[in-house]
Design goal:
2 copies of one chain form a homodimer.
Chain A lengths: L2 H12 L13 E5 L2 E11 L10 H17 L3 E12 L3 H17 L4 E8 L7 E10 L14 E4 L5 H11 L6 H7 L5 H7 L5 E4 L4 H12 L2 E4 L6 H7 L3 H9 L6 E5 L10 E7 L3 E6 L2 E3 L11
Parallel strand pairs in A: 3-4, 8-11
Antiparallel strand pairs in A: 1-2, 2-5, 3-5, 6-9, 6-10, 7-9, 8-10, 11-12
């Protein structure tokens, strides 16, 4: 068991309120005073979740986007957020960060309501947190509701952000759609709101298609077969479409597409790509071009 | 203008929603779906907000307490919180931190609902954030509502935590009520709920009596005279009661008593000590033993 798993065990012993959903979903669901609130909080740490050379406006955008993506996966409407901000000591950097944050918040109609700013000790890596609050507009899908026979869908291709990160690592000046996918992910709020009333289970693909599909299956007490890994034309243009490329794309994190389970007879109400199927049993099976392939040692990004 | 003031100016340009209260209060007030929510988020950074040698259980307690204190100042009932936690790399340290956090949350009936854990780069100072959500049970006092003629009160003596910090700095093994005041502040939730329907303005004393009284007066467009600095017997026992000690106590942070403005004719519904009076005009006047004394260069703890 990893250090993170052990701390999660300790946290679960504290977070016993039903609203915490056993800390096994990406969000909490708090019903209070007539409101049904979706709560999520994600941190980003320099050198862990972003590259120190990433443009500050993109880091700000991404902090907003990853939190909004958790709301999207529950079909929630953004109603407010709070920022925890570590001053950089460089005011133009701070201003650019806040400009990017504001772009993402404004674009998705998410009001910034407050938070805290702190000075860090000299040379400390900086960290940021955002707590996002949404309001449920109907049923709130969990990870755990998939049923045997359901199809598994994703709202777009996977792997772009992973290749974008590699390109950005190789050169801070890298640009183009793959780097954009890594730096400026688009939370699928519209799709999430349209999907939430129909899906049996939904989550965002933040840690890789294979890992997140396995998590949905595990939470639902089912087996899942992933039989298609959708690649974008931009990714195929730089990496081709080999089995190795497909597996790499299915293990890459940071895509923030929505992953959902839908009855086989139902057509998704939004553009989505079928990528697999749930069945009784347990575990993940990967098929590429019809043939079962061995699973990679690591299914995705187990981040700290 | 300090770097923090400049970033606050940038943040105010983004946080234009009325729920943000212009970022001039300690909390946001969000009305959604029939609920009236009080939102606050405070970070603690190693070496800035606590001493690296502080016991981890006390750091966990304090993170909960400082956020609960912001709810107390608005008379709010705790309904849920989200934790941002930087893994220390030392599991017994993490376990002790969470035990202290849980003690404070349980004691104040605040459910932990979720959050995020991150790994920090090696040797990075750690930081923690908590976002606390409360529900308003009646009127929600702001900092800005004091009126000319109001008396200024505080719910307990000031300066204990400041001396406790000095003692803890001198020796990590220091103990006793002053160190306890620094390490285990008690948010005044019961007092806040009883006071909220009656006060004209209320806030917690996190940065020192003088600075916070000046802020309340400034937000209310008034002048304030502080004419009494209440010291605890424990503080007088180690520091005496000289003018210098009184001024130091009035500049010390981390007390988390409630500071409030009440009409002169009204008796406070909780135990409280009158410490001053509001009048038309602006600025802060300090009187000790009846005589006006010059203000210290720094009124309190302008933390980052």
């Amino acid at each position: 068991m990893s250090a993170e798993s052990r701390i999660l065990t300790l946290l679960r012993a504290i977070a016993t309120d039903p609203a915490a959903r056993g800390l096994s979903d990406d969000v909490a669901l708090l019903e209070t005073g007539g409101a049904r609130l979706i709560l999520t909080s994600d941190m980003m740490v320099e050198g862990v979740h972003y590259l120190p050379a990433d443009p500050p406006a993109d880091i700000g955008w991404k902090l907003a986007a990853v939190n909004l993506s958790d709301l999207a996966a529950k079909g929630a409407k953004p109603v407010g957020c709070l920022l925890g901000y570590a001053l950089s000591g460089d005011e133009s950097w701070d201003a650019a960060f806040l400009e990017g944050l504001n772009e993402a918040l404004s674009y998705h109609a998410m009001p910034l309501l407050g938070g805290d700013t702190v000075k860090m000790p000299p040379r400390a890596p900086r960290s940021y947190s955002l707590t996002a609050i949404g309001e449920a507009t109907g049923p709130v899908p969990a990870r755990s509701g998939a049923r045997a026979g359901d199809r598994l869908y994703v709202t777009g291709p996977v792997g772009d952000a992973g290749v974008g990160l590699e390109l950005a690592r190789a050169s801070p000046a890298a640009a183009g759609p793959l780097v954009e996918a890594y730096r400026r992910p688009r939370p699928r709020l519209t799709e999430g709101a349209l999907l939430a009333p129909h899906v049996h289970a939904m989550m965002d693909v933040s840690d890789g298609l294979l890992l997140d599909a396995a998590r949905m299956a595990g939470a639902s007490g089912l087996a899942v077969t992933v039989d298609h890994i959708p690649l974008s034309p931009a990714l195929e243009a730089v990496r081709g479409g080999s089995t190795a490329t497909q597996i790499a794309a299915a293990r890459a994190g940071d895509d923030y597409e929505l992953l959902f389970a839908l009855p086989a007879a139902m057509k998704p109400p939004v553009r989505a790509i079928p990528v697999g199927r749930f069945a009784a049993g347990e575990g993940l099976t990967l098929r590429i071009d019809g043939a079962v392939v061995p699973l990679p040692d690591s299914l995705g990004w187990e981040h700290g």
